[in-house]
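Lab meeting prep.
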Amino acid sequence: MGDGPGKQKVSSILLPEAFHSPLFYLAAVTLFFVISAGLELALGNRKVGRLKDVARAAGPDLPGVSLIVAARNEERNIEQALRSLLAQDYPRLEIVVVDDRSTDTTAAILDGMSHEHTRLKIIHLKELPHGWLGKCRALQSGSECASGDWLIFADADIVMEPTVVSRAVAFAIQRKIDHLPIAPVIRLSGFLTNCFAGFFGAVFNAHYKPWKVGDPKSRYFIGIGAFNMIRADVYRRIGRHRPIAMRPDDDVMLGKLVKKNGFRQEILFADDLMSVEWYSSFREMVGGLMKNSFAGAGYSVSFVVLATILQLATSLWPFTALFFTSGTVWLLNAAIVLALLTVAADSAKYFGLKFWAGLAYPIGNLLFLYIIWRATFLTLIHDGIDWRGTHYSLKELKANKV
């Protein structure tokens, strides 16, 4: 018996026209994914502790803390950063700054400040041994001269409120943890840098799920280059920086080593108590991210291709679809866009960014794709990365697996 007019009419009622379009199913699946992941991200971020809610450590038996900074050509920010570190109210704090072969006035600034402050130790490195990234070697060199029970690896442009270290130590002792990264507020100027940071912040937290790192059974881990605090004995037991000697993403990989070896970690948001100038311009940001963008993809071109396809289909197409679709498909894509913008704007505040940085989500996404593809091409073409005046071969970089 053939398909008569009656049967066709019933079919059109049960299966609206939109159901026959692949764009409908793409939008439906994407909406489900975005809402599920967005709710997890929004609720998860609210589970992460805030440094301002932690009381300062006090008492006669406080552990010694060594704050270690690697600096190469940091003349623009190093003095302001160090003065904030020297102003910490924690009584048992030493500060070790490693000048990693600087060619500007960084070394002179450090030597001048060391004459003023006795708890400031300066180490000047003149050579880089084979098989080491400069920063990783500098941080390990600093640790070898440190006497603290706790080590804090910090960036050379970090600015801390005077109670940061004492609050961090108090939290680590109370929670009985071995590793405490703290996420600072990001200081940025310029439209494009803020757009990128708004997108990156949401993706970073969605990928690393900081609210899960405290669960010993969870596979998630994290590390923050601006502030990575770790027990000195644990740092030695995981091999110091040697196992991650050629990792441009050494901060996150330090967190992976901690978790991999069965030690405990948690993370805090610093809010206004700690800030860092991530990059001063978009051009500087692009140059800086050339070193670790491809590393984050495991130096895998296929991973970059797959990630690009997924982003184009689920994060960028919904915005474009608003101009080329109608009816049910348009409504689904509008819902996706609203969900993406809401989640990104909410996530931006945890990094001290304005809400509009999250609303610029599609621009940030395009910038992200540009940066990761540029990093991929340049790394392949140059057979490695050039970072702060030193070339590191791709073979060596890929060999350092964690």
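Slide two material, second protein:
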Amino acid sequence: MVRDFIKYSRVLEIVGDTLKVRVPTDQGSAIAVRFGDLAVIEGDEGAQSLAQVINIDRSDVTLQVFSGTKGISTEATATFLGHPMQTPYSDNILGRVFDGAGTPIDGGPDLSAEPKYNIGGPSVNPAERIVPKTMIRTDVPMIDVFNTLVESQKIPIFSVSGEPFNPFLARIGIQADADIVVFGGLGLIFDDYHTFRRSFEDAGVFSRTVMFVNQASDPLVERLLVPDMALAVAEKFAVEEGKRVLVLLTDMTAYADAMKEVGISQERVPSNRGYMGDLYSQLARRYEKACDYAKGGSVTILSVTTMPGNDITHPVPDNTGYITEGQFYLHSGVIDPFGSLSRLKQNVIGKVTREDHGQIMNTMIRFYSEARGAAQKQAMAFDLSDYDHQLLAFGDLFRERFMDIHVSMPLEEALDLCWATLAECFKPEQLLMKQTLIDTYFPKETDAALAAE
């Protein structure tokens, strides 16, 4: 585990789960210490712990110890390995589960002989990117119809604690039209981890899935490594094998909280609500790994960002919104069409999807917006017109058939159901759509009657 020619350094001080060592300036053949490098901390009784360089101040190096500093004294030694954290990569990692240090935790075969690659590298050269133009089908109507997910998109699910965002994320991973799914769990309780794994296994997609899981009881620093682990593997599959990779991360607020704890232990000056001033840069560094490669596959990132107190101005969702290309807003068990946005949907709607997609999307949202206004009039006991009653009926059907996150259907079936729903509530002349589309897709009276039944 330790290479002989690397120098040892004695510990200067221990603060929380961090320790500071002084690296001799005359290192001879020793490898220079760099930010993010790994080190082995050896205690008085020979016990070894893995640590990572998190700060360098001239010859003083601060290390975050993965397993904590309990049992480590200032007589311990640090041995620098000369490389950052690495992750195994080959086809053999498919269907496997790793912790935040890249160690298998599923009881499967040993992978120590597999090739390993550094994590946390730079984002891809913009010259190697192409304009996103391919849809990722999820069979979730509120995504496929109204806020289409596009390959290479980076987009979060904004929600609050208690909402079923983890089961929803698992279902997208199962149903999404992707070659490989890479899952990154951050501070998960065991029940959530087990639910994800069981869902992937029961759906028969575990063989094309790689899981990196940091549980709530695991070392905090490993939580900071999980996104980089997942994204490094995703990049390898996309670049070297041309795979279309979907990366699922939950929950990025737990990731930001871990960064805050590490920053406090370093005695760094906090910024907004105790988070470090580089929160935006740290989040962007991960999200910008999303890419559609000109000479390979693609990496798409779908994450969960919980909003403490349902506060959209909280630093984590606030910064995330500036980085990502939209968001899905999940609350009360439904995807809210007015809080959700996909900035790349215009690249595919009507171009790689059916010709009526754009108009049916806009018409459905227009009527639902008016239905909410009619519901307010009804709640305040105002008189309702016949048109208001049409809108109220439409609003009920829209929430039942499309907004519920448990609804699952292919895009074409969802578009047909949109037309059937409109036919149940409105006359063709009320739609204000292109007549050619109405003539082609609006159900005939017999079809509308069958849909109503």
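Talking points for slide two:
The chain has a mean pLDDT of 89.
Residues 357-452 form one domain.
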